[in-house]
Amino acid sequence: MDDRMERFIEKAKELGSHEAKFIDPATVKTAPWVIMKCRYGCGRYNTRLCCPPHTPTYTETREIIDCYKTALLVHCKSWDIVTPIIAKLEKEIFLSGYYKVFGFGSGPCKSCRPCNMVKCIKPQEVRPAMEACGIDVYETVRANGFPIDVVKDFDCEQNCYGLLLID
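^ thats the sequence. predicted structure below, dont judge the formating
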């Protein structure tokens, strides 16, 4: 990892994350069952361009992840701030010279209601969720020492995550 990247952890915190750390992209787990949770567990399935079936499959996501040497896992306490933080960090990292940077957010896109389902009109703000691309968020964050549990309702403590692939 490049020593110049350490500042991105502090920037993630300035933007509102609880914490962030660099991880090995090989520890990011993908699985075919993850997108099934979107298809059969989320009422927003196929209603947004950043949701399945419009997102990469888990195998395509794995191929993309394997192109990177470094990843930044970003931990937030509310899912609705993850994607905006990831989009802003991605831009800053790109402008710092890491031209391959790509970010994954959390949860369904809320930028346009309804989504026009033809072409994204806010591509600078929108990133697909980790889970929408077949990333097993639970296994990935646990493998990297972060907390995550199934929550029963929105009154429970939230542990939400975003991911930036950097090279």
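The mean pLDDT is 94.
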